């Protein structure tokens, strides 16, 4: 039977190591052990944390995108541990978005890509967001408009421009993700963008780009595409 954390020397226990040396010295597995709090009869919290981390190929990104069902498939992980892990990664994503909002200035439309990648990469459903810019191209706010396939029924100009009018911005960037990982625009992506550009012209609100976010696939280094860069639409 494996040792329990209480049986380890103080300097081998994650909580004591953090208290004496700081969180930076802890490994990924040790941090996960602190989150889940306890192990099983057979495994200490640290051993179970290693199992969880290895289950997702020692990738924090894969772990951060795991569903509750994915987590609960691991022996020893029940609803309490699974929801604790999900909550931590959800907070981390919100922190990244909040920090970006405070300091993000868009020098050119495609420079919004890192922000949208943090927001959308790895999502299992398509999400459509808009970025509202001030006159100096500082990001004022991002808003989720819809979840689901991108088409007229899910992305209506009324919803898109309501946010722009509420915050008094004259420029917006569109962004959505492709859960498949391939950011190549579909005919529906292009048609939807054209419709929104036309609606924006009537309201005096300029759409400056539409970015599609994927994730890196074998043989394809692209993580996003810019419809403006591709020249598929006149913005």
Automatic annotation (TrEMBL):
- Keyword terms: Hydrolase, Metal-binding, Metalloprotease, Protease, Zinc
CDD domains xrefs = MPN_DUF2466
Tell me the Pfam families matching this sequence: RadC, UPF0758_N
InterPro entries assigned to the protein according to its UniProt record, in alphabetical order: MPN, RadC_JAB, RuvA_2-like, UPF0758, UPF0758_CS, UPF0758_N
Q: Which residues form the MPN domain?
A: 105-233
- Similarity comment: Belongs to the UPF0758 family.
The identity of this protein, by name, is DNA repair protein RadC
Name of encoding gene: radC
């Amino acid at each position: 039977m494996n040792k329990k954390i209480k049986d380890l020397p103080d300097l081998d226990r994650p909580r004591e190591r953090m208290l004496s040396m700081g969180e930076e010295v802890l490994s990924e597995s040790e941090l996960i052990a602190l989150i889940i709090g306890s192990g099983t009869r057979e495994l200490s919290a640290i051993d179970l944390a290693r199992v969880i981390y290895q289950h997702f190929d020692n990738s924090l990104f894969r772990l951060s995108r795991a569903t509750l069902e994915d987590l609960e498939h691991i022996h020893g992980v029940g609803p309490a541990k699974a929801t604790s892990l999900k909550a931590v990664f959800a907070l981390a994503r919100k922190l990244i978005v909040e920090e970006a909002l405070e300091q993000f200035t868009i020098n050119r439309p495609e420079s919004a890509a890192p922000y949208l990648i943090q927001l959308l990469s790895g999502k299992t459903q398509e999400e459509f967001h808009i970025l509202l810019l001030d006159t100096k191209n500082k990001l004022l706010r991002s808003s989720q408009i819809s979840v689901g396939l991108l088409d007229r029924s899910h992305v209506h100009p009324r919803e898109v421009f309501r946010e722009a009018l509420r915050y008094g911005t004259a420029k917006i960037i569109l962004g959505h993700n492709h859960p498949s990982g391939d950011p190549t625009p579909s005919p529906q992506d292009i048609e939807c963008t054209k419709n929104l550009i036309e609606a924006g012209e009537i309201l005096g609100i300029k759409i400056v780009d539409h970015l599609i976010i994927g994730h890196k696939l074998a043989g394809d280094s692209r993580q996003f595409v810019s419809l403006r860069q591709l020249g598929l639409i006149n913005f």
